[in-house]
Amino acid sequence: MAHIQTSRFERGPAGQRTARRSAGRRRESGLDLFRALLEKGSPSANSYVVLLGLDTFDSSEIIRSVRDGLPYRAFERLVANTALPSQEALVLVNISPRTLSRRKRERRFHQDESDRLLRASRVFARALGLFDGNLDAARTWLSEPQRAFGGEVPLTVANTEVGALDVERLIGRLEHGVFT
């Protein structure tokens, strides 16, 4: 059986966590990698990028990738790792279906769209953390109306930066047992 590259994490030259490729039987999904980080304790500040298929946690490299525009496959990885229907992922990322179709042809997102993809993975990763890596629980919570948002759905609230911060703050409160 042929070996395919899989990701593991190590410390880079400046002490930041990066993904290292090693031989393995199958490619681990970003979800599997994120769950492994959750099991080890508190994931690093940028570990949510594995949900997009990025293989570095270094902020300067992530910024550079966003400025250059993330590849189209980052959206495909987000959909695969979150198991969100494409339409719900488009709402979260705030990209129209026509724009997505153009980006697929161009094979790259623009800087602002890449930033929104990053934000979507960050919010989803926070929900995964809240539910100890349980994909179904995280997806359900993000997809159902929440009283804290006046009955709005967190996926919809999080399609702006201000809304995403509100969703993340609520998750933080829930993680600390504050249910108001």
3D structure, described in words:
Strand 1 and strand 2 form a beta hairpin. This protein has a two-stranded antiparallel ribbon. The chain has one domain. It contains 9 helices and 2 strands, in the order ββααααααααα. With 180 residues, the chain is mainly alpha-helical.
Descriptive keywords:
two-stranded antiparallel ribbon, mainly alpha, single chain, 180 residues
Short recap of the structure:
53% of the residues lie in helices and 9% in strands.
Structural class: mainly alpha
- Uncertain segments are 1-11, 20-26
Please bin the fraction of helical residues.
40-55%
How does the major sheet shape up?
2 strands, antiparallel
What's the arrangement of secondary structure elements?
Elements: E1 4-11, E2 17-24, H1 30-39, H2 59-68, H3 73-82, H4 86-93, H5 97-106, H6 111-130, H7 135-143, H8 154-157, H9 161-175
Antiparallel strand pairs: 1-2
Helix pairs in contact: 2-6, 3-6, 6-7, 6-9
